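Blinded run. Sample ID left blank on purpose so nobody reads anything into the name before looking at the predicted structure. Input follows.
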Amino acid sequence: MAFPYLSECNFEQGDKGHFDFESDSASRLDFAHYSTLAQTPGLAMPWRGAYAMRVDLAASTTDAYLEEHGSWDLSADGTIYFRFMLWISPDITMANNDQFYVLKLQSPGPVDEVVAGLIYTTAGGLKFGVGETAITSSLPIEKGKWNCIEVTANIDAGAGNDGTIAYWVNGNAGTQVASLDQAAISHGRFGVMGQDAGTTAGTLLFDSLIADDARIYWPSER
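Blinded prediction complete.
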């Protein structure tokens, strides 16, 4: 019997799965089979199964993402939990203070209410972090390995700026972002969005994305 998550996508059909549509005008997002990934030295195999979603950071700075309506929608005081696996190629090149997002929750407009993604500084190195419209809390993340990412969003109840975003990188908890003034969520996006021009090289792989109404936790390994 399948576990009743709000949604789950492991890209095993070689396509966008349950997502409503894909935006990729620069053709830099695909669903690559292991045999395709193996043709590029240094790329990882899919975390689980035969396919992973891939985004080429060198191809363009144009947003490339999947969009979900319905299962990720949240009303005031609603909460959603995400877990996904993220692989970052060792050759990623980002300028100081560059950041871009791999997950967004948005209200109509669209207006960003929750963002999560990568940020680089020469002082702190590469990190994964979260915020309302930009990354304001972050933790170090590793290149050349699969990282387990968890993000939890509790949307502002409307009575007084009480929205929160929590996150974990490989089981390590980051500092919660709190006191957020947010509108209800109408859709979510997953991929690469808001890439700075200083990000000129690298490949991201995504696998095993789960959304639920309870924390999923990091996967057990055997």
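Unblinding after everyone has recorded impressions. The chain has a mean pLDDT of 95.
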